[in-house]
Sequence to fold (93 residues):
Amino acid sequence: MGLFLLGAMGDRYNIHSQLEHLQSKYIGTGHADTTMYEWLTNQHRDSFASYMGHFDMLNYFALCENEAKARIRFNLMERMLQPCGQPPEKPEE
Fold:
C-alpha cells in the first residue's frame, strides 16, 4: 500500500509541473490568480483570431452580415481590443 501512495504522489507532482509549464508557455491557459474577466477576455480574443485565420469562417460571416470580408475583419480586430467591456475595478489591498 505504501508504494501505491508514493506512485500517486509522484503522478500528482508530475501533473502539477506539466500544468505550470503550460501556464508559463501559453497565456490563455491561465494560472491560479487569473480572474474570470481575464479568462473570458483570452477566450474571446482566441475565438476572434481563429475566425480571422479561417478563410471559410470569414466568408460565412461576410455572407450572413451582407458585408465585405475586409469590413468583417476590421470589426473583429476592433472587438479584440476590449471583447468583454471595461475591466472591473480591482479592490485595493
